[in-house]
Amino acid sequence: MRQEIHFNFNGQWSYDMGIIKASVQDGLFEDLLVASKSIVEEKIDGRDKPYFYGVEREPLSFPLPIYFKDDLTVDKVREILRWLDTDTYSPFYMIDKPERIWYAMVIDDVSAIHNGIKEGYMELTMRTSDVRTYTPFTMSELHTFGNNTGGEIIEFENNGDFDCEPIVHIKKFGNGNITIQNLSKYTGDFTFSNLNDQEQLIVDCGNKDIESDSLILRYDDFSDNYLTFVRGVNRLKVIGNCEIRFETQFKTF
Questions:
Q1: I need a surface site. Which of 40, 204, 237, 240 has the fewest CB within 10 A?
Q2: What is the DSSP string of 67-88?
């Protein structure tokens, strides 16, 4: 990451903005791979070994020094800050690694370092929303089920390094219910009841959001068991007549 000079933030390329990511350090390049973590434990009087509760990971932070190809004018600085200084997390990735996406925003003070004649660079610090990086969204093949009262088994492969939560696209055939069971990590039936013929649902399992083209709020018709896909192959049992596709971003180091 440190050796690359162009990046994309919130859909905009740095070269289109007339800047490059500068290197302001000597020696070997350093890439951030894993977020720092701390141990959560409690020490009790009279017990040498603390009670271990788990770990807490901190989101990544990294410097972003940017060099201006043209003069570092007031108007140019304002243009760059309008682009980068957002109040929401936005996708950020380097030109040589588009498969490794952070969701980031600028934090801390922003400094302009120059020689007095409008030549120089700006120093920013980016903070990510998560301890992991993400791949771009990908859509699975379409799975179609008819006369499917007993259930059929399909497989989905999570190619990331960690569990992920899919966005499930469903089209119902005939009135009734549909159920998905993840036999590789069973956390309860993912079930919708009372669906209409040809009704289409989009279920975001990560954000726990449900949309229906029928404009009916389907939360009361849902079992409240959202899907999680473990790393590797997931064996899924689908019950009910429908079409299903899975949209996913894999979590990676």
A1: 40
A2: EESS---HHHHHHHHHHH--SS
Q: Which of 199, 191, 242, 245 is nearest to 220 (CA)?
A: 191
Strands, sheet with 152-158, edge to edge from the N-terminal-most edge strand: 152-158, 232-239, 176-182, 190-195
Handedness of CA 89, 95, 97, 98 (dihedral sign): positive
Place of tokens 């259930």: 151
What are the pLDDT digits (tens) for 182-238? 999 998 999 999 999 999 999 999 999 999 999 999 999 999 999 999 999 999 999
CA atoms within 13 A on the CB side of 242: 28
* Alpha-carbon gap, residue 54 to 131, rounded angstroms: 16
User: How far is CA 69 from each of CA 83, 118, 121, rounded to the nearest angstrom?
Assistant: 17, 11, 9
